[in-house]
Design a protein that fits this description.
Helices cover about 45% and strands about 10% of the residues. By secondary structure, it is mainly alpha-helical. The strands form 2 sheets. Strands 1-2 form a two-stranded antiparallel ribbon. A two-stranded parallel sheet has the order 3-4. β1 and β2 form a beta hairpin. The radius of gyration is 16 Å and the shape is globular.
């Protein structure tokens, strides 16, 4: 079986299983999020495969009305107490399993950026990164490289895509589940 077809099949299987078996956790987090912000889900336009925009879904970690900017440009005071927990445990990412199931994302791939992150979009375009589906995790995430360094991130994304094996696919997922990588850093005032 061709590798991209195999990873897509694995994406569908794992996302469906994750949504099915994780539904009690998703429901609990949704309810707690409702009491935290009255708006537990966060939707944002991101740049997908072939630079096609799509709507990314996550659990809300910041106060409603917070400016829609890259995480490293966001104000740390905008994060709610429950949002801190969601970010630390990476549970805010769980709704993205829906994006994986619908084909907008993969479990493993370059983290999708905002259309306004022009430098990163340009760097990724130059490195051919947009030929792949964006992912929930990948090489840059487990190495702690965030979107504040567009050139380095685009190079790592391209490196991952050129060398990605089935073993790497599972390794990045396992490392992320076990807490490796810090995610995008929030600016502290």
């Amino acid at each position: 079986m061709e590798y991209p077809l195999m990873t897509r099949l694995l994406d569908i299987i794992f996302a469906a299983l994750g949504l099915f078996f994780g539904s009690p956790i998703l429901l609990l987090l949704f309810i707690i999020g409702w009491f935290d912000t009255r708006s537990p889900l966060f939707r944002q336009t991101r740049v997908g495969r072939n630079q096609k925009p799509f709507t990314l879904v996550k659990f809300r970690t910041m106060k409603p009305g917070t400016a829609s900017v890259a995480t490293h440009l966001a104000d740390a005071t905008a994060i709610t107490p429950f949002g801190h927990f969601l970010r630390r445990t990476k549970l805010d990412e769980l709704p993205q399993l829906w994006n994986v199931l619908t084909g907008d994302m993969s479990l493993v791939g370059p983290r999708p950026c905002l259309p306004s992150q022009e430098e990163l979009v340009q760097e990724r375009a130059q490195h051919g990164v947009f030929t792949a589906r964006p992912g929930i995790t990948g090489l840059a995430q487990v190495q702690g490289v965030d979107m504040s360094n567009p050139a380095k991130l685009a190079r790592l994304d391209a490196q991952m895509l050129q060398t990605l094996t089935l073993g790497d696919y599972f390794s990045y997922i396992i490392q992320t589940v076990l807490g490796k990588g810090s995610g995008d850093k929030i600016r502290v005032n």
